[in-house]
Amino acid sequence: MTTIGDIEVTKATSTRLKDISIDQFTFGKYYTDHMLEADYINGEWTNVQIKPYQPISISPACSAIHYGQSIFEGIKAYRSEKTGNISIFRPLDNFKRFNISARRMEMPEVPEDLFIEGMKQLIALDEAWVPREHDYSLYVRPFMFATDGFIGVKPSGTYKFLIILSPTGPYYNHPMKIYVEEKFVRAVEGGVGFAKNAGNYGAAMHPTAEAKKKGYDQVLWTDAKEHRYVQECGTMNVFFVFGNTAVTPGLESGTILEGVTRMSAIRLMKDMGVEVEERDLSIEEIKERYRKGELTEAFGTGTAATVLMIQELADKDDSLTLPQDKWKVGPAVKAKLDAIREGSAEDTYNWMVPVS
Ligand code: COI
Is the CB of residue 303 below 6 angstroms from any atom belonging to ligand 1? Predict the structure, then answer.
């Protein structure tokens, strides 16, 4: 065992990397040799350690399982094409959002050095797992959950924070078919839509499974009051492009996740001279402008999904097809973002944080 800063490090005796090839890096299937783990006990973070990737032991009464105090983040690390060096894309923004989620779920905040330095040290240790190929990266999953073995309903007194790493390729390898959800809802005003808590994803499973049965990849959530205004797609924020203007739902309602890829895409589109409007966008407006030929493209943004084009948008009455020959803004944003992440374009906004 060695110690780096305050983090105890126990190294794995061998690597599992030799048994895996790049074409097996589908999202979420493989994990690197090590993980970071820390405990929150008596009001402080302790037992911070990096150790071989392994199962964790919890009480059957673990309150996260029963009452859902469980939050996570998704971040990606890339290997520069030019230098081979590894950098993480905007981890501070995810760190801030993680603690916003923690506060909403009445969980303790995680200190910046544990989150950021812990992540850097873990990635540096498993750096051989960071893919070199275009569209591939190392997905970083920090998460925290309540660990009290107590089934009374109250905030847990103890928590675990972990970071695990998973080499990954594209989350989806084809343009999306999206079903507009007008029965189930993802989030209500005053609820937890802006937080990245596990329950938001659990609650989406059934509506998404129903949409998949109908032949769609994901749902597009609409607002809880009227099912009129679009919110976000399953695992992505969403943009609709009308000529030179991209429209995405605003964040004021607190029902939408403030995506780091979303804010990066907005910045890059503005740099490209595309107008960006963050505002309410109704399904009627989308359909009407589609009929007039003004809707040229739609795409989703997310850490796992990156920038993903939408080829079809359907609800119970209509199906809108968005032909590939009109796609311009989404592919340009993806190309620029990829170039910054993979080190072939200048990182003007200092989004890439070197691992060492
Ligand atoms: C991400 O894009 O990182 C997500 O968290 C979405 C999903 C894989 C849960």
Answer: yes
Considering only CA atoms, which of 274, 253, 264 is closest in space to residue 306? Answer: 264
The pLDDT of residue 25 is 82
Task: Kindly state if the Cβ of 74 falls inside 6 Å of ligand 1.
Answer: yes
Residue with CA nearest ligand 1 atom 7: 235
Pick the CATH number of 176-342 from 3.20.20.10, 3.20.10.10, 3.30.1330.60, 3.30.379.10: 3.20.10.10
Question: Domain-by-domain residue ranges, the chain?
Answer: 2-170, 176-342
Q: Can you spell out the DSSP letters for 298-313?
A: EEEEETTTEEEEEEEE
Cα gap 265→271, rounded to integer Å = 10
What lies within 8 Å, CB to CB, of 236 at 6+ separation is 218, 259, 261, 300, 301, 302, 305, 308
Q: Averaged in consecutive runs of 10 residues, what is the pLDDT profile of the chain (356 residues)?
A: 72 93 84 97 97 98 98 97 95 98 98 97 97 94 98 98 95 94 96 97 97 97 97 95 97 97 98 98 98 98 96 95 96 97 96 95
Please indicate whether the domains covering 2-170 and 176-342 agree at the CATH topology level: no
Give me the CATH topology for the region 2-170. D-amino Acid Aminotransferase; Chain A, domain 1 (3.30.470)
Task: Supply the residue whose CA is at minimum distance from atom 9 of ligand 1.
Answer: 235
CA distance 150 to 161: 19
pLDDT tens, 42-96?
A: 999 999 999 999 999 999 999 999 999 999 999 999 999 899 999 999 999 999 9
Backbone angles phi, psi at 325, to 5 degrees: -65, -15
Ligand 1 pocket residue status of 230, Cβ below 6 Å: no
Q: What pTM does this model have?
A: 0.96
Say if ligand 1 is within 6 A of residue 259 CB: no
Determine the Cα–Cα distance for residues 264 and 245; give it in Å rounded to an integer: 16
What is the model's pLDDT at position 232?
Answer: 97
What string of DSSP letters covers 224-278? TTTS-BEEEETTBEEEEEETTEEEE--STTS-S---HHHHHHHHHHHHTT-EEEE
- Interatomic CA distance for residues 32 and 138, integer angstroms: 9
- Residue 19 has a pLDDT of 87
